[in-house]
Amino acid sequence: MPDLAKTDAAQAVEGKPHFKERFFVRFTRAQRSMHAVLFSTFLGLAATGLPMRFSQSYWARKFASGVGGFGTIIFFHKLCALVLTVAFLIHVKEIFQRGLLNREKGIFWGSTSMVGNWKDVKDLLGHLRWMVGLGPKPQFERYAYWEKFDYWAVFWGMVVIGFSGYAMWFAPFFAHFLPGWALNAVLVIHSEEGLLAILFIFSIHFVNTHLRPDSFPMDMVIFTGVESEEEFRTKRPQEYERMVREGKLEKRLGEKPAVWLVNFSRVAGFTAISIGLILLVLTLSAYFRE
Amino acid sequence: MKSFFSVPVTLVACALLIGAAPLRAQSKSECLACHADAGLQDASGHSVSVDEHKFGASIHGSLECVNCHAAIKGYPHPDKVTPVKCDTCHTDEAQGLAGSVHSNAAEHPCTSCHGDAHQIYPKTDPKSAVYPLNIPRTCSACHADNGMAKKHGLAPVYPSYIDSIHGFALSKEGLLVAANCQSCHGSHHILSRKDPASPTNKVNVPATCGKCHAGITENYLGGVHGKAIASGNMKAPVCSDCHTAHAIEQPTADAFRMRSTPICGSCHTDKFSTYRDTFHSQLGSLGGYVETARCWDCHGAHDVLPASDPRSPIASGNLVTTCSRCHAGANASFVKYQPHANARNRTLNPALYFIRLFMNLLLASVLTFFVIHTVLWLIRSRVDQIRRKAVEGGKNA
Asked: What is the pLDDT of residue B74?
């Protein structure tokens, strides 16, 4: 990825043509805030959920006693869950309002929708063919198929983990309309789905979005909201062309991110990724020792 | 107690014997003419002085020296005299001792427990080495991590005892009723716990503890464990199997609650492993939150009864009450929750088994697909990047 902190002068010294690099907006401030809330609460939930899932492991007990025992762990687990629930409800309300009340286009279908379509299937197959050298690289739109998968995995995950979590939290209440065996089932579902989310986010999402060579070491666009024209053109050529064709490209122009924002994003992003990778190692070690 | 009643009788007997002796018995004052000297030593350097006042205050203070030192018939007496035989008078104690673990008189003379032979007090006297509050310290001379216990490969039980709830009651609270060593082991006729006659033999433990804990023992004898022991099933636990023998803790204390489930689990391994899969255990293992249900919170501790017994807290009619102790508002549906469900057992818990299977398949398939996808992608991207770099000298390498 281009080094956003570098000055134009520095780029000129490296032998680049001296023109002002343009930046385009990909994510709004609200979307970036949503991601920040999502990843902080997710890290919190993972860090407090894993010791409970692997409560027999050495590190879980050490961690628990270090932070003040199980009481502290469940307190922060519930706190993060509440914050994430609020964020989730805000998101659902927004979809409802924009898609159903305001009849905004591109929410449920079309090139900018998160909903999967035939192109995603073709892109997936084409991408796999390209990986093994059997075809050209697909031209991705605004959201590539793996990004849509990430979105729906998190969406489904929040519904499933959230519901099963609240069913345990308020078990006597849920017992009014759930059969008794469901109270056993919710723990199995909660822990397995949580484990899937943790393993997926801390390995697949990290690599697909941040650690793959085209974005290494981190895709800053979710933090700064903007990406360079070159990045836009190479990563999402179909969207770029559509913008040009529809004459909307200039409307998407954004500011080059400030140095403090880039640095702050790096610190926040690398902290999140590091915590995630540590938790991934602990999870795998505990899982295979079980 | 026996020794108290027999003292006057034996004194009379001793007096008669002395009276019948052909030689004139020496009086105390004659002996003390020499032995009152605090520095008096025998040939091997041992002190042979006697403090007249202290001896006079002791339980044997009214006796003459020769009543015990019977080998001495006159003055001057030989340098070496035969040792005193306490069993001349204390026959019952001597008999008890003879068959006990302390029968070797050379290793365990009476004075090793009763202290200085000239300063022996009744066991009701706080100065006595065998006064209830002094007994643990007296026994610790050998049964701490030193001395005889070490020599014979016995566990150093004194430190465990003195930090236990009994030791605390005795040493800190000063309670005479607190169990001391001899409350459980007896005094003169101490037997190995392997001996069926020993009060610490497994089969006798409930009765031994029941001397004080009568109510608990009654509950215990009515429960499955007590009945099993009574019917000769020695695998069932007695008091000490759960509470330990010496390091007994306050059972409601956090430390014991935290340690308690593995104790039951050491026999009930299948129940322990399914308990570990539940939230009760996951919470409980992490510490700092000891309220979560342990075995006995649901099953009872001493009067454990099978679910088929209507008196059992886990009998179907009592479950709402039992669960409600922690889960306010628990209803009939709530108590259908299985605290020992086994998601790995298809016949016992089919619904749970298939849910777990589905979740595992979902987890495995998603991860397998994406790991392959990502690895291929990584390789291809890197190859492309290196090629691009070769062409452009590009910045993405």
From this structure: 81
CA atoms of B329 and A191, how far apart (whole Å) = 25
With contact defined as beta carbons under 8 Å apart, do B281 and A55 qualify?
yes
Give the SS3 label for residue A2. coil
Closest Cα to residue A238, out of A162, A165, A153, A139? A139
Distance separating alpha carbons of residues B189 and B183, to the nearest angstrom = 12
Tokens encoding B330: 């628990």
Interstrand relation of A23-25 and A226-228 (parallel, antiparallel or unpaired): antiparallel
**A133 CA to chain B: closest CA distance, Å?**
8
Interchain contact, B396 vs A130, CB within 8 Å: no
Residues of A in contact with B325 (CB under 8 A): none
| pLDDT tens for each residue of A122-144 | 999 999 999 999 999 999 999 99
Q: ipTM value of the model? A: 0.89
Nearest to B287 among A65, A208, A213 (CB): A65
Q: pLDDT tens, A255-290?
A: 999 999 999 999 999 999 999 999 999 999 998 887
Which residues of A fall within a CB distance of 8 Å from B381?
Answer: 212-214
H/E stretch holding B228 reads: helix B224-230
8 A C-beta contact, residue B193 and residue B201: yes
| Nearest chain B CA: its distance from A61 CA (Å) | 5
pLDDT digits (tens, 9 = 90+) for B210-230: 999 999 999 999 999 999 999
